[in-house]
Specification:
Elements (H helix, E strand, L loop, with lengths): L13 E5 L5 H12 L2 E5 L20 H16 L3 E11 L6 E11 L4 E9 L6 E4 L2 H10 L7 E5 L7 E5 L2 H14 L5 E5 L7 H18 L12 E7 L13 E7 L6 E5 L17
Parallel strand pairs: 1-2, 1-3
Antiparallel strand pairs: 3-4, 4-5, 6-9, 7-8, 7-9, 10-11, 11-12
Helix pairs in contact: 1-5
Bound molecules: zinc ion (2 copies).
One zinc ion binds next to loops.
InterPro entries: DUF6671
Protein name: DUF6671 domain-containing protein
């Protein structure tokens, strides 16, 4: 397949990013270099109003819908027709009890009516908490999660206490905050947790960068028919034949691509080889 020169697809366009947590540090360099756009940071809206990781404000919408809302607000404030947003979530892996981070970087081009996202999903996170009355244990926890480069949040009692201190980024602040929380505590414990805001968490920042790179990868795939960017996988079809018995397995047989603009469709057979190892076969390895 041959493409025209599609470099700098967003030359002369200003993409707005609504954030007050310095996400431009990782999004701007990648996006500007790869697409030729100018990234504008919009800070006139407090994104914490859409939900906080530390539970003072619940996120009422899904991760994707919250990202969409940030883009809408950003485009309105800056009066532009293209926006980008990042939205993360933290919890446990769906099957194994390990911390899990999903980072979404969403781009919406109103002019071209295109929505496309990049994603990072993995266990590279320091997401965690500790309830203790012992400052040495608190220090050990802090060390484990990469403090002070990674900030901490403290509360008296438990995760829902209103006595909360944020922006803890030095041992002195940690000590003062710990003792303040102890004096306020009814249970005698202090609740310590990792701060997941991007500017307070370099590990998360790195994952946002990875999601941005994934977005670029998807964006820079061009439709072979009309040349539009963002020619992405619409569906992965299972059924790769087993190497032993030839019956369809649960592994991917082909990817189906589709163009958001001209609706052209294309498929890529055998993205992971022509046969599935017998261990993935329901017939040979039940
Ligand atoms: Zn097309
Ligand atoms: Zn088989």
């Amino acid at each position: 397949m041959e493409f025209k020169n599609h470099n700098k697809i967003y030359e002369n366009r200003r993409i707005v990013l609504l954030t007050k947590h310095e996400k431009e540090k990782v999004i701007k360099p990648v996006l500007e270099k790869e697409t030729g756009c100018e990234l504008i940071v919009e800070t006139r809206f407090d994104t914490d109003k859409l939900g906080t990781f530390s539970r003072e404000i619940k996120r009422p919408k899904s991760q994707l819908d919250t990202a969409r809302m940030k883009i809408r607000i950003g485009m309105k404030l800056f009066n532009t027709d293209i926006g980008i947003a990042s939205e993360g979530s933290f919890g446990s892996h769906p099957y194994v009890p390990i911390p899990w981070n999903i980072e979404l970087v969403l781009l919406y081009d109103k002019k071209e009516k295109m929505e496309i996202y990049g994603i990072y999903e993995g266990s590279e996170t320091n997401f965690g908490h500790l309830e203790t009355n012992n400052f040495d244990d608190a220090l050990k926890f802090a060390e484990k999660i990469g403090f002070p480069k990674h900030f901490l949040i403290l509360r008296s009692d438990d995760e829902y206490s209103k006595n909360i201190i944020k922006d803890i980024d030095s041992v002195d602040k940690l000590k003062d905050s710990f003792h303040w929380c102890l004096t306020k505590s009814r249970s005698g414990n202090v609740f310590i947790e990792t701060d997941m805001r991007a500017h307070a968490n370099p590990t998360r920042m790195k994952n946002i960068e990875k999601a941005t790179q994934d977005l670029i990868l998807k964006l820079m795939n061009f439709c072979p028919e009309c040349g539009a960017p963002g020619f992405i996988i619409k569906e992965a079809i299972k059924g790769l034949p087993c190497e032993q018995c030839g019956l369809p397995s649960a592994m991917t047989l082909k990817y189906e691509f589709s163009c958001h603009k001209c609706k052209h469709e294309n498929e890529q057979l055998y993205p992971r080889g022509e046969f599935a190892p017998a261990q993935y076969c329901n017939h040979c390895n039940p």
